[in-house]
Amino acid sequence: MLKFLIITIFPESLESYLASSMILRAVARNIISAQAINPRDFTDDPHRKADDKPYGGGPGMVMKALPIIRAVSALKLKKGGKRKILIMSPRGRQFTQTEAKKFAKKYDELVLIAGHYEGIDARVKKILKAEEVSVGPYTLTGGELPALIIIDAVSRHVPGVLGKVESRPTLAPSSSPSKAKSSASPQSSSPATKKIYTPIAPHNLNCPTSDVGQLTLCNKEFTAVN
Predict the structure, then answer these.
(1) Residue 190 above 80 pLDDT?
(2) Over pLDDT 90: what percentage of the chain?
(3) Which of 69, 75, 137, 155 is spaced 20 to 30 A from 180 at the CA atom?
(4) Any residues with CB less than 8 A from the CB of 149 and at least 6 apart, and which?
(5) Is 3 exposed, middle or buried (0-12, 13-18, 19+ CB in 10 A)?
(6) Per-residue pLDDT for 202 more than 60?
(7) How large is the average pLDDT for residues 47-64?
(8) Residue 107 — φ and ψ, nearest 5°?
(9) What CA–CA distances, in Å, run from 95 to 100, 117, 213?
């Protein structure tokens, strides 16, 4: 099972996409898993502050290094597993379809660090040996959208994620409305979701997956049910 681990201070921004469509069905079948970890849970101050002035000086504020490093360090990689750590950044190299295929085949875990403010403390990249990637030649408010794009692009290449309907590029122009309707998957085939709010301690982030699959988002647990 390929695990996606998203480091973000806004885990709620991921909920809608991860709990729907192809991703939800793949999670329900235990093919992939998606988990968000809030670095605020790894701060020392009572205000859970995640930003600070840049190390070495400079304008604006950046995400602090220590909470992110602690969050990633708390994630336990299975014995013999392979993990890739990526930082979402407009300065990074362009993420491609070729890489999506490579990541799906090569790694057991992808850690996606979503930045905010003026970016992320440069020490994060150095200490975690992370790689900066970009999803396009533009700047976004945060790294959550790029992280979701990478999750979607990589998941499509994991065996069993795409069904017959999703794998079809498009319907032929000559297809009649009746044929198009009959080729669509039944509405009942998509698993419903029930939100269960369960605290998750920072030292126990790798939650067990039930028979029907789970999405663990920071301190919220979303279970796919039939």
Answers:
(1) no
(2) 42
(3) 155
(4) 95, 135
(5) buried
(6) no
(7) 75
(8) -110, 155
(9) 8, 22, 28
